[in-house]
């Protein structure tokens, strides 16, 4: 048997971006001098020279470890060099969720929207990240040995093109000079960076030369060269460097199709061409002079088209915001009402209006006509604009280039873009303004920004790796049936979300762009099963013969006639079906028809929110239409260790201020509470609800006192302990936790709670009886003494009580010996049975009657106390008990 290797504790970890270059490697080693004792995690590299160098020398010189060898939960400080982007450090992703994790970053790349939130961030627009950290070493008086100085020098030399790029700065020269004084070996650097090309590499270089074409982009010559091969080309970046030197090229983009991916390597010696910005738009990164990107799920021709659009948009763009915007802007002040905004937008025919701070032109939000109209229909016209306006929005200045405008309006789906000058609103660009211009010049639109192109990528590999074969077969059968009927079929919601999260979830929901009920019936016929249809909602449940359930819905849009109402259903497309869902992370669909199996449909940025661990509603009236979504937001936040987004949190607080929970039926509230109490950590959800004032909003008596929190904490522990016993008696979690939530409430008031939560008469009767039994048992347990009181007495106190009540007693008790013996009762005593039954008593000649119960009860007590542990002893004791009880009855007569 293989011995399990203990994971290494690593309080401080240093790493860099995936596909590391020498700048990344050198920066990691340089950072290790600033953070003594840190563990270095090498992210891997595609460059052959770097891999060989790393393997042959670096691992032996420095504290490098594989990520699998460290304990991710032990990491307290993460130091990231040569990048700040979350997506470029997938090899340490598990660490990012550590509570209280501190992050330090060192980087020379431009800011991006997905930059890590860092406690310390040292960012300089210098030639390399090694330069930045080298200056830190110089300032702190930290010296290096020759091997270290040479490795750092490699990073500077590579990222500055041997001091040939225009991006070089005086700081790079100064850093190199200091490294030379520390023993940097320039000959060794030249040997590593200038090795001879292999025969295969010469062939690829010849193909690049043959396919290279020159394009005049706004007066600048740009070389685009392509190769196509079914295998990975090592040192592709080196080939591009050689190509530029041979042909005296200033700007070069090399596109290499290697198997199923397109690799883009770009270099620029022209300050007007920032290749880092262009590659970032393709999903990669870098800086102005050198950058790269790897593109999946696109052809070489598609990537080339995207590249042309980016080049035309970013190289000396002829169209800027000033040429497009409408001025002066129509706006509304933030102290006005929603009804005022509707009147203004109707008067001017606007779909959106910027909201400014009262008495100024500082833009603080955007109000949409559609949202305002819905709010008025919910009788919220008198509510202030600030409650429902969009607060998270982008602005631009008059000289901003066209690509940035397209990125915001097309890619980020912000329909109106405020134009700002010196902090004041001077105009707006609408989606209509942009589209009118693009009709004349459609080639300016990069394919990566087109919504239809951007919203789908194929995750078939993840689906196959993360689902059991039986579920895969079920998905394919549903897709095949959809193909036969001519309808698109999708797996949707949490099922798709959990595939991306790598969490188990076999609750399959299907949406059909057709007749969902007819599809369900055909599906049941095909696989064997029955159907429960809900005609009103156009949904059905397929219950297969093996017990599996599949929910099927017709693609639909839900709208709500008044706040907290049940939904009215209309036919719609998959996009509108997803839009009706509660949060972006659940607004995902997966195509399962043949030929398109595994294509992910994401209209609303769900993948981005999953990466950022954010819970976000799809529209600002979501909680007005259905306040139970607030409880679901909290449930998902705690289950996935996500964070409710800022705008979503403001909408929650607004819904509470409007007292929308009072409009909810108790049945719907209780249904959501039951889901919460089925979570692994229901207390985390309840505490979050208490923090936001939701417990009191449900009912004032439900406010969580310190004593209730203490008991609920213990209830979670005893519940988890009980589940680990795997006993046949399952419990009803909501009964257990409602006992804790209502602890201390008097009997005459408890009915206010049960009525608010719409308990059935039976549920109310059983719950009140359970509380009474617990109260009676508590009094009896106070008199029970270990060593002096019999164990059978404890058994008789606990046996009549349902398991939920016993677990509550265990959590409620502060005496360890009582808790210990209650656990003994739950795990062993209550399953003990005597070996004598009524037939045995009848054979003894005892007349059937109440005496049977008394005898069998005393036999059970004797067995528990160890006085009658065998059948022989129990039969003997039964005869004695019959004699004693009969004599007692005669005496009493």
From TrEMBL:
Q: Look up keyword Glycosyltransferase and say if it applies.
A: no
Which residues, if any, are the signal sequence?
Answer: none
Please indicate which superkingdom the organism of origin belongs to: Bacteria
One Pfam assignment: PolyA_pol
Specify whether tRNA processing is a keyword of the entry: yes
Q: Where is the CBS domain?
A: 328-377, 392-439
Query: Per the database entry, which stretches of residues form a coiled coil?
Result: none
Q: Which SUPFAM superfamilies match?
A: CBS-domain pair, DHH phosphoesterases, Nucleotidyltransferase, Poly A polymerase C-terminal region-like
The alphabetized UniProt keywords are:
Magnesium, Metal-binding, Nucleotide-binding, Nucleotidyltransferase, RNA-binding, Transferase, tRNA processing, tRNA-binding
- Which SMART domains is this protein grouped with? CBS
Q: What is the required cofactor set for this protein?
A: Mg(2+)
User: Which family, according to the similarity comment?
Assistant: Belongs to the tRNA nucleotidyltransferase/poly(A) polymerase family.
Please state what the protein is called: Poly(A) polymerase
- Natural source organism: Pseudodesulfovibrio portus
